[in-house]
Design a protein that fits this description.
By secondary structure, this protein is α/β, with parallel strands linked by helices.
Length: about 400
């Protein structure tokens, strides 16, 4: 309200890729839908502003019906799912599994990354992703998962065409390194460009689909917990750089999506001290910034291999030596004193690990957020395990 918003005439110059995009809007008044025989064009609704919700669509209804910053309890009926976590917790794997879970039953979902690391391509075992939406997986029930690697240069080229009709000039700037220079000295602008592209995908209209939108949901494999609030809270980052104009309008538009009830920020953690502490800190920072905290996904959970009484005995060093020897014999091995001691030591280590998990789980429970468990993939991740993770998230009702 009271802020400058780009006119529809200017906004319509953007060339978009993927479902609902692909041609400059000024040359078409129709949506695009991938099909067996290429692309079929049919009439689609047109927003008053680039990236703003189309009245009457699911996005607009959600924006009007949910309170700003409200924390839900799941299952998460949101348009934008932001997935963050400490490095090494497997957040990209969880984001991929969440995208598959959301797509199950005939939905179309976009999975996007913004860090330039091509981790989505690794998880889905596909070639590196270009700055173009590409289908990477099918989900049970006819669903589709598209993927996009968003980069600041590609997003800035779209901006130059949208607001100034300077896409060709932008390519020249890219060749001489001016774009990298600009986004390095003004990192807030870089984040506005990246999140702005995500916002556009969330709100992109497509009249060929029942929802009126190109995607039923968007999953963002976001930066780690250490910088997630700064990344999402773009309006504060650009406040000193742009008081008005397209960059500030875009930042305000991104913030509107994040606070409209369409978004949930999910956190991925391990039951270890540092990841849990970062998760606790991130939840506090997200709440302080009035950003909507979703669920907590506990990844790589190790099951207990011993009964509670045996766990206590292992920690105390009082396991029954004769029982250990009998077990060794049953395995066809000689129960030497050295082997018995080694097994008792391993049992003690396992018991300590289980106790640590229980303490850290108690810390996670204090966050008062829904918690979803995913097991340790002992044999490594592959597509089969990714689909299994999606099933587990659905079984725990993380998604509808």
């Amino acid at each position: 309200m009271g802020r400058r918003v780009p006119r529809a005439g200017r906004a319509s110059r953007v060339g978009r890729t993927g479902p609902g995009g692909g041609l400059p809007a000024r040359r078409r008044r129709c949506g695009r839908q991938p099909g067996a025989d290429g692309v079929r064009a049919v009439p689609s609704p047109r927003p008053d502003r680039w990236g703003e919700p189309v009245p009457g669509t699911v996005t607009a209804v959600a924006a009007d019906s949910e309170r700003n910053g409200e924390e839900g309890t799941g299952p998460w009926r949101r348009r934008l799912h932001v997935v963050t976590g400490k490095g090494g917790t497997g957040k990209t794997t969880v984001a991929g599994a969440l995208a598959l879970a959301l797509a199950t039953g005939g939905q179309r979902v976009l999975l996007a990354e913004v860090e330039g690391r091509q981790q989505i391509a690794q998880v889905f075992d596909t070639p590196p992703l270009p700055y173009r939406e590409r289908k990477v997986a099918s989900a049970p029930g006819g669903g589709e998962v598209y993927a996009l690697a968003v980069d600041a240069e590609g997003a800035l080229l779209e901006y130059l065409e949208m607001f100034y009709n300077l896409r060709s000039a932008g390519r020249v700037l890219g060749r001489i390194g001016a774009i990298d220079f600009a986004t390095t000295i003004a990192p807030g602008v870089r984040d506005v460009l990246l999140t702005g592209k995500i916002k556009e995908a969330v709100n992109r209209p497509d009249g060929t689909r029942p929802s009126g939108l190109a995607y039923d949901a968007v999953v963002l494999d976001a930066p780690p917990t250490g910088r997630i609030v700064r990344f999402l809270n773009v309006s504060h980052e650009v406040a000193g750089l742009a008081k008005m104009g397209p960059i500030r309008a875009q930042a305000d538009g991104v913030l509107k999506v994040l606070h409209s009830g369409q978004t949930a920020v999910h956190l991925v953690t391990l039951l270890e001290e540092m990841p849990v502490q970062e998760t606790v800190d991130a939840v506090a920072e997200l709440r302080a910034a009035n950003l909507p905290v979703g669920g907590v996904v506990v990844n790589m959970v190790r099951p207990s291999l011993l009964a509670p009484a045996d766990l206590r005995a292992a920690r105390e060093g009082s396991l029954d030596v004769e029982e250990i020897a009998a077990g060794i014999k049953e395995a066809g091995l000689e129960p030497t004193a050295e082997l018995i001691a080694e097994i008792a030591w391993e049992a003690a280590q396992h018991a300590e690990r289980v106790a640590l998990q229980e303490r850290q789980r108690a810390e996670v429970a204090r966050l008062n957020r829904p918690v979803y468990d995913l097991p340790l993939a002992a044999d490594g991740m592959d597509m089969g395990m990714l689909y299994r993770f999606a099933e587990l998230l659905r079984a725990q009702r993380m998604v509808p």
